[in-house]
Design a protein that fits this description.
single chain, alpha/beta, 16 strands
Length: about 500
């Protein structure tokens, strides 16, 4: 790290030195403070260059906004010349201004944005196929370059493995010569890294190499992509994009804690690593869905190209995110338009980090709002009490407070205190008496319960006898009122009808 090398004396700075910070927006407030302290000590000039709309700092703070407040504004460049095509410049400008949905629709119309059917593996495969197709289509262009960016190092390594498989199948990459035990120091992930002559690898930190003729020096920094020229017993022979070639020893690449090599494939990189590079064409891949990115990252990945860029995302991941936002049991089908809307929604998110001064301003705004709301509430209460003809509100409360203060200064306060203590003692005695009464009543109830139960049983028996006697009496009366019919009475209606017919 530059700051550490300056502190260690490996870099000498004076009042004639100029230190330029590239990608200023990725610098944290603590790092900027350390640079300013070094500036006070050595007197060098400090210049910062960066775009606050691109990736923000990994560490805490938003130094660009902090500098704008401190300096009263910063000069800015509002146009871009990287893209050679007017439509490509328009799309890039829309991304920077926050109109990601419009930019995505334009790329959809151009056929350079694709929702790949399937999930993670299908998107990785499509990215590798597209990489191979674009290289084949531009094989006659000596200065053609193609880069790939993706949200995470794991995704970049998966894309690199897929590209290597296709290169070896096509015969353009040599067979594997050695498999290294590698690690990602950022995430702690461990993995096997097969390497062949001609492979492209990416460094995770500033790396020194033996450059020949007894010379040594840095061959790359964190994020640098180099070509493998040879694999030796002592290390790797690598060549950087400037044509410098050198031997990097295994111990130089080894992680101090695990001993594994800090190295990965260089066919794809993270969006943070891609910030600052320029290539003829670029492929932006989100194999886990667009939820892994936002407006800052999409602006970075969507502006690396000079001629054309391609965006790829997963249909399965987009569908899953849409379904997760809907209520359970929602019967609506998820259609293609929903996926594009979800993609645009994620690209439009542009969260910004807060500085400590922002938190202070927020707290002050809350305090002021609370005070204002309190005064408004008290004003409404004063108006109501005045309308009702009652003396209340702040004035009355203030007077009551004065009376309480006067009473506390007089002998009445001690009298009230003694009376209060006597009242507490009386309440305590009443409480104890109530407890004794409850216990006595409970004992009497326990003694009376058998007598009550016997009386209740005798009463139920007597009532049963009386009820049966009453039922028998009523049955006898019923029989007396309605005697059973004799045999002659049973034929009387028929005889009556016969007489009626003869008459």
């Amino acid at each position: 790290m530059f700051i550490d090398r300056v502190k260690a004396g490996r870099i000498a700075l004076t009042h004639n030195s100029v230190v330029v910070i590239d990608e200023l927006a990725t610098v944290g407030t603590r790092q900027l403070l350390e640079l300013q302290r070094l500036q006070d000590r050595h007197g060098f000039r400090l210049i910062g260059i960066g775009d606050p709309r691109q990736c923000q700092a990994i560490e805490a703070g938003f130094v660009t906004r902090l500098l704008e407040k401190a300096l009263g504004g910063l000069p800015s460049v509002e146009t871009t010349v990287r893209q050679t095509d007017a439509r490509a410049r328009e799309i890039t400008t829309l991304l920077r201004q926050g109109y990601a949905a419009t930019a995505l629709e334009m790329k959809r119309q151009d056929g350079t944005a694709e929702i790949i059917a399937g999930g993670y593996r299908e998107v990785i495969a499509r990215a590798a196929d597209l990489w191979q197709q674009r290289h084949a289509a531009n094989a006659d262009r000596a200065r053609y370059s193609l880069t790939v960016s993706t949200p995470t190092n794991d995704d970049a390594r998966a894309i690199g493995e897929a590209i290597r498989t296709r290169l070896q199948a096509a015969g353009t990459l040599d067979r594997d010569r050695r498999t290294l035990a590698a690690t990602d120091p950022n995430t702690g992930a461990s993995y096997a890294l097969p390497l062949a002559v001609g492979d492209r690898v990416r460094l995770f930190n500033r790396t020194n190499a033996s450059l020949g003729d007894g010379r040594s020096g840095a061959i790359g920094d964190n994020g640098s992509i180099l070509e493998v020229r040879a694999l030796r017993q002592t290390g790797l022979v690598l060549r950087n994009d400037k044509g410098t070639e050198g031997l990097v020893r295994w111990e130089t690449l080894a992680d101090p804690r695990s001993g594994r090599l800090r190295l990965t494939y260089g066919y794809a990189m993270t969006t943070h690593t891609a910030q600052g590079i320029t290539s003829t064409e670029h492929i932006f891949v989100t194999p886990r869905g667009s939820q892994a990115t936002d407006g800052h990252k999409s602006y970075v990945s969507g502006s690396r190209h000079r001629e054309r860029d391609y965006w790829l995302t997963s249909e399965g991941a987009e569908k899953q995110e849409v379904a997760n936002r809907r209520p359970l049991g929602d019967p609506r089908p998820i259609i293609t338009a929903d996926l594009w809307t979800n993609w645009a929604r994620n690209l439009s998110r542009a969260p910004e980090k807060l500085n400590a001064t922002d938190l202070v301003h927020q707290a002050d705004a809350v305090r002021r709002a609370a005070a204002g709301d309190f005064l408004k509430g008290m004003a409404r209460q004063e108006a109501r009490t005045e309308h009702d003809g009652r003396r209340d509100g702040l004035a009355r409360r203030f007077q009551d407070g004065q009376v309480r203060a006067q009473v506390s200064d007089s002998g009445l306060a001690s009298t009230f205190a003694a009376t209060n203590r006597q009242a507490r003692r009386t309440v305590a005695r009443l409480g104890r008496t109530a407890t004794a009464v409850r216990e006595a009543v409970a004992a009497q109830l326990r003694r009376a319960r058998p007598l009550v139960e016997r009386a209740s049983a005798e009463t139920r028996t007597r009532l049963g006898h009386l009820l049966r006697a009453e039922q028998q009496r009523r049955a006898a009366e019923q029989r007396q009122r309605d005697p059973a019919p004799g045999p002659d009475e049973a034929t009387r209606p028929y005889q009556t009808r016969r007489r009626g017919l003869r008459g």
